[in-house]
Amino acid sequence: MSAPTRKRRWLTTCAITASAALVAIPAGAASGPDGTPFGARALAQLAAERAQSAGAITPKAKAEDDGDGGDDGDDGNEADEIAEGADQYAEARTSPGIVAPGAYGAAWQSLTNLRSTGGSWRNVTDLPYNSDDPRYRDYDSNSSGGSGNVTGRMAAMAADDDGYVYAGSAGGGVWRSRTGGGHWQPISDRLSSQSTGALALDGAGRLWLGTGEANTNADAYLGSGVYVLSHPHHGTFSTRSRVGGDELESTTVRQLRFGGGKVWAATSEGVWSHSTKKLSGSWKLEFAPNPDYLPGGSKATDASAAYKNITNDIAIDPKDPSKVVLAVGWRSGDDYNGFYTKGAGGTWTRITSGFGDLPTDADNVGTVTFAHSADGSRYYAIDESPAQMAANPDSGLQGIYSAGSPFGPWTKVADYKGLAADGSALTSSGYMPGVQAWYNQFLTVDPNDPKHVYAGLEEVHESKDGGATWSAVGPYWNFGFSCWSIDPTKQTGDCNQTTHPDQHGVAIGSYHGKSFVYVGNDGGVYKRPVGGSQDTSGHATDWTSLNDGTIDTLQYYSVGVGKDLTYGGVSVTGGLQDNGQSILRGNDTVMGSNFGGDGGDTLTDPANGCNIAEEYVYLAIQVTQNCAVNDGSWITDSSKITSYNVAPADNATGEARFIAPITADAKNSSTWIAGGRHIWVQTHGYAIRSGSEWTSVYDLGAGHTATAVAAAGGKVYAAWCGPCNNQGFARGISVGNADGTGWHDITLPATGADGAVPNRYLSGFAVDPKNADHVFLAVNGFSRHWTEGPGAGVGHVFESTDGGTTWKDISANLPDVPANSAVVTANGGLAVATDLGVVYRAPGRTTWQRVGNLPAVGVLQLKLSPDGKTLYAATYGRGIYTIKVRDCD
């Protein structure tokens, strides 16, 4: 899940031409508080919502309450909705307890041992995705914001002076470019984890990969350890290239640092080290603040164990590698947060004084990133403050600091107010630089100039004088600047291209003798010259998107397919993490984006692919009947808006999951079902224009929220959880009719009884199109072999032939891996999407096969083509793939 739950669509402060006489908004189109058509989810409103919740609970108290920093199914008093939404993704995989190390590795081994079906997957999104596509400048689009071509989130970057660039994605593996960026090739597909935490080149030119993204955003996957590629210009990572043993399996790795002949890893389970010369042998645990919570410890099964040993970075004095400073701490706060170094007795002790401006108290040390100059003369640090994140609605950034040594004294060289004044796009109260500092951080120093430093938060900031002054060279977007225009003949008016928001990785390298800075963010990879130019506002004029279509790391929550009545073939669309809704028409060579922000679930009319309903988050649904094609003229004539906000009431009350389920009746595409606390039904199909057209047909109960819905012939199935995290986790199934009759809760047998559905997250239904009483259930998480929690149970796929009254476990030889969704094929087969690929059970069979050979990437949703002959898979890290159903048999 994404950080940007507080950003969406259009700023209410967008620049409008003086002649723009805004008229009345058509029914169903959301309007801002000033009557402008800038949407109920505009940045200002979302910032206000955050301000309202900020300070409701201190991060330390929150950590002591449950240790997860996420939603407890209570009144939503979370200091940061970003973290709440992200944690919900993890809940599906961990509740009702915690997952033991090795679960994904064992699942991958089991999956690769399955017999494979015939056929091969085909990637349909491996082409440029233009977030500024001028065809789609409707009301709910971010087109003209200035990000240009985008792909999925990049967590880490590395580059050398020979033109080789390495990009590590959140869920789609590591990619290599030999041409200074672009023309990418995947180089980690053989690994059991495609989630990147860190990339680093050592002094010998070897490329080190730490798997397991460590942004603590909870929508990432755990890693399988650290790997090294001795000759990164050639070859690919393999399981044989893993460093050490399995000590770092099922962890996340935030940083890899080198010094004294060792590589140091800052992980979610402490700081570890290993020789860089002899790569065999075990990793050494250097420091863990709470070792009892590590695997094998006396408190390993505690619900807060995953949050008790988080480490962020290691500062090694290049002049004396024996001198090391560790930055340790959970971003929402805990007593162990702080900086540590080795004392005279060889034990790690907390630093409590002598640091100057850089805080050392637990309340103000959260996520930290270090960087130093090549000559060792300057050190820099970013510090996120848990206390400030909880209490300050504007920013969680404590500051950026500089020192001559990692031991200080440190001097503050920037705070969020100063960065906001450096040309930032984030100047509105409630959403200012560093508001996501727990999620967005990078630092690097120009190897040729100790005073030339780049800092990544939501935006890219640059200083050429050691931090005395800063420029927002990569602003969040161009909306709100005087140079911006929605003019469809231009990308972003008279503004220069910027980067996508939300920065994570950075590297400096050279190509043909010229130095470039490479940044990785929620939209992929961008570069500009190290000595690049800026305009009078301090914005860079020379960013280049490197997301050329040869790199597809798009993170899809959903996919929709419908006939393209204009160009022939089909129109393919899908909701994405922080990259809106992509749309690929029948004749496209470039994908466009017709909705902005986070894209959630998707409905597409099989008979007309331009009838689309897209969920933002928390059931914020908007609908279009023309693919949201618009030239932007709505900005002066709001009657030309063709996207309509039709959210049911649970959106306004917050009683829905971050990514909430929506579906259409399998036998009547005009009947839709949406799930929050209530089960909502509307019968106007894509002609719906207002949220008031939804009817609540069933109340799941206070604290309960729907996790999956399905319907066929008027019969509706709904699964729910509440509480949804591991603090008292509960789940259930309710069944009834779309007309509101016959609703009842299914009595699920206790775990261990015959036909028991596990006490885990229920993630998807698949209804037999020939018989509405015949339904399949996909269950997330891991079995009780890996999940240590009450009633975790076994099994991932269950079948009912009596309308959900009783269930039978049909998992058979299915690997023990989280199952996300399922679909019944026209021939009676069953395809299931899992966190590591797709499996299939042929008609009349009882065993499962692996479908094709996808990398170890999560598949969150499956859909069939209008003719039922093609299966579409929405992967969370490698785009959308298709395979012919006949090839599965």
From TrEMBL:
Signal peptide: 1-29
GO function terms (MF aspect): hydrolase activity
Keywords: Hydrolase, Signal
Keyword Signal in annotation: yes
Top-rank taxon, per record: Bacteria
Entries under InterPro entries matching the protein: Sialidase_sf (IPR036278), WD40/YVTN_repeat-like_dom_sf (IPR015943)
Region (Disordered): 49-80
Positions with biased composition (Acidic residues): 65-80
Protein name from the UniProt record: Glycosyl hydrolase
